[in-house]
TrEMBL record:
<feature type="domain" description="Uroporphyrinogen decarboxylase (URO-D)">
    <location>
        <begin position="23"/>
        <end position="32"/>
    </location>
</feature>
<keyword id="KW-0963">Cytoplasm</keyword>
<comment type="function">
    <text>Catalyzes the decarboxylation of four acetate groups of uroporphyrinogen-III to yield coproporphyrinogen-III.</text>
</comment>
<comment type="similarity">
    <text>Belongs to the uroporphyrinogen decarboxylase family.</text>
</comment>
<comment type="subunit">
    <text>Homodimer.</text>
</comment>
<dbReference type="InterPro" id="IPR006361">
    <property type="entry name" value="Uroporphyrinogen_deCO2ase_HemE"/>
</dbReference>
<keyword id="KW-0210">Decarboxylase</keyword>
<feature type="binding site">
    <location>
        <position position="78"/>
    </location>
    <ligand>
        <name>substrate</name>
    </ligand>
</feature>
<feature type="binding site">
    <location>
        <position position="328"/>
    </location>
    <ligand>
        <name>substrate</name>
    </ligand>
</feature>
<feature type="binding site">
    <location>
        <begin position="28"/>
        <end position="32"/>
    </location>
    <ligand>
        <name>substrate</name>
    </ligand>
</feature>
<comment type="pathway">
    <text>Porphyrin-containing compound metabolism; protoporphyrin-IX biosynthesis; coproporphyrinogen-III from 5-aminolevulinate: step 4/4.</text>
</comment>
<dbReference type="Pfam" id="PF01208">
    <property type="entry name" value="URO-D"/>
</dbReference>
<keyword id="KW-0627">Porphyrin biosynthesis</keyword>
<dbReference type="InterPro" id="IPR000257">
    <property type="entry name" value="Uroporphyrinogen_deCOase"/>
</dbReference>
<feature type="domain" description="Uroporphyrinogen decarboxylase (URO-D)">
    <location>
        <begin position="143"/>
        <end position="159"/>
    </location>
</feature>
<feature type="binding site">
    <location>
        <position position="155"/>
    </location>
    <ligand>
        <name>substrate</name>
    </ligand>
</feature>
<protein>
    <recommendedName>
        <fullName>Uroporphyrinogen decarboxylase</fullName>
        <ecNumber>4.1.1.37</ecNumber>
    </recommendedName>
</protein>
Length: 358
């Protein structure tokens, strides 16, 4: 397995095997902070034009790897491809958030939703995965991803972005059975989507539960964690996905790491509000951890970035199972040079931490 990979640090760390230094990739590593990304997006005409064209998607996936010594590639796409394929009509106005032409709020709306065809509406995603794998030629592994059912439901019910996604939260109290029907069709869609990405060549999988942290403890377990656990269970017996490490990332859910580790996933993403040492104790060696530099630190001076990167590495310590990442996505105003400084510091200090000469 993965015999042809030239750099398997990321997969080794996810399996909690020894590595020469700490692997790093960055959430939203292909994005607007890169001038070459902005140029390709211009050529594509729109965000969806970019994501739905496998050549463009491949091109922007590889852009950050040409600049930085990153240890993984992540498929260029978006979590909202599933609701778009369900017929909600997704668009992104330049400089603004996602917008759906239709919302999902009534029993009739939910009844209309079906699992999208992975060889039909979502074929462009699988074509992009196949093309990227070919172009990567084993340099680093490719991460496939999906949104969590809860986070997808947030956008589908609201019809776009929101500070608090209060429309769906109110539905959870007023019409829990309806919300569960929505989350159920989404969970089946996410499992099928990730299985298809695995079949197309993804080498690790990640579920982004960006809005799980909006929920209190009991609703988090009922409306977010339950469905992620169902997906993990399904993928762990799936022909294509069962060999692949699966990473769960719920932003703002530091209090739930132990419960999340019990789902049977390989790793958890951790945001910057939780100390990695505490997170490591909470998961008791059951999973690897990915994180957790505050992305805002990339706007600070180079010496601050280096120091804070070392603080994160020291916080995890010289133990197996750490993948360095930001605690959330990189923002458009970050100077690409600062990403280079971060990547190099993580690799250099990761070696020092393991007792090897820098
Ligand atoms: C919530 C969410 C979305 N999309 C995603 C999440 C979960 C992770 C997170 O919390 O950030 C996931 C995502 N979106 C994108 C990727 C590509 C891979 C990568 O990380 O490099 C990934 C993994 C590209 C993108 N997705 C989007 C962009 C910017 C679009 C542009 O070019 O204008 C990119 C590079 C658009 C998008 N997509 C979404 C929003 C809210 C927005 C608008 C806000 C923003 O611009 O950051 C939904």
């Amino acid at each position: 397995m993965n015999a042809a990979l030239k750099n398997d640090r990321f997969l080794r760390a996810l399996r909690r095997e020894p590595v020469d230094t700490t692997p790093i990739w960055v959430m939203r590593q292909a994005g607007r902070y890169l001038p070459e990304y902005r140029a390709t997006r211009e050529r594509a005409g729109s965000f969806m034009g970019l994501a739905q064209n496998p050549e463009f998607a491949c091109e922007v996936t590889l852009q950050p790897l040409a600049r930085f010594d990153l240890d993984a590639a992540i498929l260029f796409s978006d979590i909202l491809t599933i609701p778009d394929a369900m017929g909600l009509g997704l668009s992104f106005a330049q400089g603004e958030g996602p917008q759906f032409a239709r919302t999902v709020r009534t029993a009739a709306d939910v009844a209309q939703l079906t699992v999208p065809d992975m060889d039909g509406e979502l074929r462009y995603v699988m074509d992009a995965v196949r093309l990227i794998r070919r172009e990567l030629d084993g340099r680093v592994p490719l991460i496939g991803f999906s949104g969590s059912p809860w986070t997808l439901a947030c956008y589908m019910v609201e019809g776009g972005g929101s500070r608090d996604f209060a429309t769906l939260k109110a539905m959870c109290w007023d019409e829990p059975a309806l919300v569960h029907r929505l989350l159920d069709v989404l969970a089946r869609s996410v499992a099928a989507y990730l299985s298809a990405q695995a079949a197309a060549g993804a080498q690790a999988l990640m579920i982004f539960d960006t809005w799980g942290g909006l929920l209190g403890p009991a609703p988090f377990r009922e409306f977010s964690l339950h469905y992620m656990a169902q997906i993990v269970g399904e993928l762990n017996t799936d022909t294509h996905a069962r060999e692949l490490p699966l990473i769960l990332f719920s932003k703002g859910a530091g209090a739930h790491l132990a419960a999340m580790a019990d789902t049977g996933c390989a790793a958890l993403g951790v945001d910057w509000t939780t100390d990695l040492a505490a997170a490591r104790r909470a998961v008791a060696g059951k999973v690897a951890l990915q994180g957790n530099l505050d992305p805002a630190i990339l706007r600070a001076a180079p010496e601050v970035i280096r120091r804070e990167a070392r603080t994160v590495l020291d916080s995890y310590g010289n133990h197996p199972g750490h993948v360095f990442n930001l605690g959330h996505g990189i923002t458009p105003e970050v100077d690409p040079e600062h990403v280079r400084i971060l990547v190099d510091e993580v690799h250099t200090y990761g070696r020092v931490l393991r007792g090897a000469p820098a």
